[in-house]
Sequence to fold (178 residues):
Amino acid sequence: MGVRAASLVWGLAEAMLFFIVPDVLLSAVALQDRALALRCCLWALGGALLGGIALFAASSVAPEAVTGLLVNVPAVSEDMLERVMVDLGDIGPWALFLGPLTGTPYKLYAASAPQIGLGLGLFLLVSVPARLVRFVLVVLIANTVSRWLLARWTLTVRRVILGVFWTVFYAGFFAMMG
Fold:
C-alpha cells in the first residue's frame, strides 16, 4: 500500500475507532518529503471525512450503540462524550477546533453532532479546516525540525527520534487521560 492510501486508511480508521492519530504517519513522511506529506494530509482528511460521515450516520440511527463502542476506545470516557455534547451545544460546530487542543478525538464530535441537531453538511464543512490545520501544522513542524535541527543525522536516525517522540507522547497522553 502506498503512503497516500495508507494516509486515507489511517484517517478513516482514526475517525472511527482507531486511537493513534494520522499525524504519526504524516510526520514520518514529512521527515523526507514535505510536498508528499502535504498531499498525504489531503488523503488523511478524506479518510477522516469518510469516517466522520460513517459515525455521524450510525449515531443518527443508533446513538447508544455508537456511544457503547466509543467508550471502549482507549482514552475515551463518558465524561469526555458529555463534554463534547456540551461544547457542541454551546458553540456549535466550532467545538471541533477544541479537539486538538484538549486531546478529544474527532470521532466523538462526529458521533455527537447529530444528537444536538447539527446537520451533516455543516459538520463536514467545519471538519475540513478543523482536521486539515492540525495535519498541515504537524507536517510543517516535522519537516522543519528534520531539515534544520536533525539535518546532520541520517534519515534512519531521524525516524528513530520521531518514533521515540511519538512513543513518549502517547505514553504521556494515555497516562494523563487514563
